[in-house]
Amino acid sequence: MGAAVAIKEQEEILVTSVTNNIPPEEIMQILSKLKPKSINKINLGVTTYSSVLKDNKKYGKMTQVPIDVVNSLREYLIANHRSVLEQSFMNPKKRKELTDIISLYIKDNELNFPGISAGELINQLVDAIAGLGQIQPLIDDPEVTDVYLNAIDDVEVDKVDGRTYRTNVKFNSLEEAMEIVYKIINSTSETLNANKPLADAALGVLRVNIANESVSYETGITVAIRKPQTSIKVTKETFIESGQASVEMMQAVKAFVEAGLNIIVVGPTGTGKTQTLRVICGEIPNNERTFVLEDDPEMFLKTLYPEKRFVSWRCRKDENGEYTVDYGRLLHNMLRQNPNRAVVGEARDKSALNMLKVFNSGHPGMTSIHGPNAKEAVRRLINMIEEGDTKLSYDAIGRLIASTIDIIIFQDKLPDRSRKWSEIIELTDFKDGEGVFNTLYAFETENIIRNNDEVELIEGNHKRCGYLSKDTVKKIRNKAVDMSLIENLISPEIQEGN
Q: Gene3D superfamilies given for it (predicted)?
């Protein structure tokens, strides 16, 4: 006889099928004595594929493909072709490679099912393993940089023009949205369940952050997918065309980078700091060996600029999320490889002090930092360094920062959802517990167009506000940079005195 038993523990249901001659009452007595551990990873075949079988939803008419076939195939791919599997979610070429692998797997295992052709079987298995349903077109769209699933009927995207757009993507149910989530989770080493309701997953070049219903209590799910661009989609020209920066600002930054000035890009989350770093890194001279250090790969500078000497390193974490290789260790080892420059994806924690020491020792660098304005970047850096075991005083740290960092670019997102370089400032000194700043450029709002209560368009211009200090002009001139790039930033007094 057969019996099906469901055990609920900590909001998770374990379903076990039993086929034997033991009476159901005795089975229940045995199971009542068991203390099953909570599920560490959701079985995608159970949570998603079975619901597709039942409801015949997004992933095709797969009623003839057994669940265990999908599970076995996934296990095979993770064990033998993990890289192809991870990259196939957004790379059409890798998806084609995955299709070929699955086709060979079907042939080698002599898989065939009545009523379904070989071609249909391949397509259905590829979609069951690596298809993202309704959001797949967003992932494939080269104009999209980020996808936000705020609720089952609220999906937004950021595009390369810096703006955020509402899409017409809607899911029929939370279960349908979770099918996609678990497909991502089960293709990585991450877990998502009642005991671990938050997940950071790296799926090839995709970066996925997920909150399930136990945290996202109103909508039942929140997902953010960052999709780094591995082709030069965002350029100096697109920055200028979109109004993110002016021609004069881009010329000045080109001079700053070529001269080896140390630059920080500061701004709130989601304002495009990484995109700005990627664009201005294109101005690094081709003959300079530049190390790119990141927590998770996002910039892909060697892919974007193959003619340049970029060396990309990443931090590493163990299964508990603890760093085994952090920024501090990367910076230390980088110095043994004779770098010319360093690009640190994001300044953070106590490693910020190591970063400043590197930037201040003849290895020019760039980094980004979270902050509400350009001037706040100095205080944020001081606070990071103080969190470590440094014996330096607040003022000593401030003076170190002022003697190291030359230029700060403030990246912001305006109420009309456009991105702007709101300020470029020069850091000249640190006195009385505060940085001494020289504002070079600022965005000035001239008109606001509203549609009902929503800001539809902010009109304005970037304007020069001041001149570079004499010391910074001298630094740039000594590096044989084309001085016409910054001619509007050189005061008449300095020009007359040369």
A: 3.30.450.380, P-loop containing nucleotide triphosphate hydrolases
The range of the structural domain enclosing residue 433 comes to 236-497
| DSSP per residue, 386-435 | HTTT----HHHHHHHHHHH--EEEEEEE-TTS-EEEEEEEEEEEEETTEE
- What are the tens digits of pLDDT across the range 301-352? 998 999 999 999 999 988 777 889 999 999 999 999 999 999 999 998 888 9
Contacts of 167 (CB under 8 A, 6+ apart): 138, 155, 156, 157
| Whether residues 203 and 240 fall in one domain | no
Q: Is the pTM of this model over 0.85?
A: no
Same domain, 339 and 443: yes
> Exposed (0-12), middle (13-18) or buried (19+): which is 450, by Cβ within 10 Å?
exposed
Q: Give yes or no: residues 183 and 327 share one domain.
A: no
User: Which CATH number goes with the domain that contains 296?
Assistant: 3.40.50.300
Residues in the chain: 498
Tokens, residue 409: 């670019």
Task: Say yes or no: 372 and 409 in one domain.
Answer: yes
Q: Which of 389, 365, 367 is nearest to 380 (CA)?
A: 367
Element (H, E) at 180: helix 174-185
